[in-house]
TrEMBL record:
Compartment list: Nucleus
Chain's gene name: ERCC1
Organism: Dendrobium catenatum
GO biological process, one term: double-strand break repair
Name of the protein described by the UniProt record: DNA excision repair protein ERCC-1
InterPro entries for this protein: ERCC1-like_central_dom (IPR047260), ERCC1/RAD10/SWI10 (IPR004579), Restrct_endonuc-II-like (IPR011335), RuvA_2-like (IPR010994)
Amino acid sequence: MCSLRYHLLHPDYLYYRIRELQKVFKLRVILCHIDVEDVTKPLLEVTRTAMFHDCTLLCGWSLEECGRYLETIKVYENKPADSIREQIDTDYLSRLTRALTAVRHVNKTDVVTLGSTFTSLAGIMDASMEDLARCPGIGERKVKRLYDTFHEPFRRVSNRPSTVTIAEAFSKGKNEAKEALKDDGEKTEIEEGKSVASKAEKESSSNNVRSALDAAFAKYAERAGKRDRKGNPVRKENG
């Protein structure tokens, strides 16, 4: 037996205690007293130690509970396993009662009525709702419960859409990424075309302004009668 508080103070105690036992006993039980507030970390360590050394772990949240565990283990120490094993009925009526009373609202009296009417569990399962309703004491609610229990499928069909696999999701994401890159490329080409057109328009506008200025200066020079040696009109500089 150990407590979590003691385990926090002496974390190696449980390991050395189990090592002393070695493989002498077929059943080795660790009784752990939970006496701390935060049990997550210490209880995880104790559980790992128990699993690693093939031990059964019992946890008690009070000293009284731990005492009852020790008392019960001591009482059944030398008794066979059959003494603590659940008793299973072997006669047919008991097993039929055990099976049918698992259905809600069906009691032992109903089991006797159904068994005497249909003689076997197979006959009850194959009976229609009308046949079940003819049995005395079997009301509409019990008939529906029994019929649904025997005829509804074990595996229900889900109405949810089919699950997409990781490969399909990856492929879909890859295609979407390609489309996005393609759209981005087209947008980039359009923007570059607009930029080139705007630049050409600016250069054309600048050339038009320069040509207009040259024409104006030429006209002014003709009027003034001033030309250079090559016969080209000369611009008059201010100042």
